[in-house]
Every structure is written in structure tokens, then in C-alpha cells.
Amino acid sequence: xxxxxxxxxxxxxxxxxxxxxxxxxxxxxxxxxxxxxxxxxxxxxxxxxxxxxxxxxxxxxxxxxxxxxxxxxxxxxxxxxxxxxxxxxxxxxxxxxxxxxxxxxxxxxxxxxxxxxx
Length: 118
Fold this sequence. Notes:
The protein is mainly alpha-helical and about 120 residues long. The chain is built from four helices and two strands.
């Protein structure tokens, strides 16, 4: 059983996964700070309330907190936008690497043309 566990651990690159998770946790703290320190106070000021949790209305004895929904939507959009920027930068970085030399198709066309010209 111990050997099976060792084999399981060796299957994936655990170090890369661990680094990715740690970076994600710290990225989340940056996003949370941005939301709590900048975005939410601006929105709360627009609605005239000290925090988003205070935005809502009462129906009988119940409180409908629209601010919590707004909070969740803003968080989702900001996280999605930051992930979009990261993926876009990664794709541009990979495209720059690909542009550094001829593609496989270009090389195959050159070989074909050279063989036809013989």
C-alpha cells in the first residue's frame, strides 16, 4: 500500500500543483483587498450606505439584502476578468515563442518544395 501511494504521488507533478495553489491563495487575497478597499466602498457610496450588506429592503419581519447579491456578482466579474487577463497574457507569451521560428507546417512545405525541385 505504501508503494502504491508513492507511485500515486509520482504520477503528477505535485510541486507544480502546490505552487499553483499557493499562488492562487495569495492572488485571492489581492483580489479580496481590491474589492474590500476600493470597489465596495465606491458602490456603497453610490447607494448611500456604509457597506454593501446594508443595501436592501424590508418585507414584513424579513430583510432582503440586495447588497449581498451585488457583492457576489462583483466578486465573480472581477475574478473572471483577472483570470481572462492572465490567460490572455499567457497566450500572448506562448504565441511570441511560436513566432520565433518557422512552424512545423512551414518546414514541411520547404521540404516538399525542395524534394519537388530535384
